[in-house]
Amino acid sequence: MNTTEHIANDFKEKVSEAVRLHEEGVNRYRVLTPFTFDDGDGFSIVLQKNGNGWMLSDEGHTFMHMSYEMDMAALERGNRAEILDSVLNNFGISESDGSLEIRFEPDEAGNALYTYLQALTKISDLSYLNREIVKSTFIEDFKQTMQAELPDGRYTFDHHFEEHDQQKSYPVDCFVNNMEVPLLIFAIQNDVKCRDVTISLHQFEKWGIPFRSLAIFENQTDINRKVLARFSDVSDKQFSSLISNKERIHNYLETAVK
Hints:
Blueprint: H1 3-14, E1 20-25, E2 28-32, E3 45-50, E4 53-57, H2 61-66, H3 78-91, E5 94-96, E6 99-104, H4 109-124, H5 131-149, E7 155-159, E8 172-176, E9 183-188, H6 191-207, E10 212-217, H7 225-234, E11 237-239, H8 246-256
Parallel strand pairs: 9-10, 10-11
Antiparallel strand pairs: 1-2, 2-3, 3-4, 4-6, 5-6, 7-8, 8-9
Helix pairs in contact: 1-4, 3-4, 6-7
């Protein structure tokens, strides 16, 4: 039995009888497995010789696939970055120019593929974080976008109108200053936040504060229709989501913030 046959058999024994190797060149094989992303697309895995040993690589496919669902800059900092680093370290995966790789000796082939598939699954799940984690990353993503789009020194996060709101009951997620009429930007991820912002905008009007408002939703379709309707009565500008409207938000802020 040659080395490749040994690796293929170990893959079947340790992972699944459905695993197949498809030769693509000298010491290079496509690893076909029954494991997929949540949308049904299969993991793209290549087995190839690596010095005296072997290596499994996705050749950048996992991150490319994830980019269809999320802004990949979100993996560079915050909660998602911490989770990604933890997965890479815990499973012994290295990352090179977007390619996820694991090296192994032939006798470790089955365990290596099993570990690699676990890692790919956990990494791809970063596109579908549970609701509580998504809430926190949405706020992080919002702040990162504002920091990238707004001029330094022209904005503050978690702003309060101290002369009116000493109890800090009506926060503004991002206050853009040094304009005749300031811009108040809100990050809205659920019905409760939408109601709170509606109340805040009404209160600012009662106080006679001049302002323009901008709302950026995590996913506007998740907001109750009646809640959204009341909010729309007092809001000046809205974007239905952050990720899918990055360019529109950029264009709007470029014009609105002078």
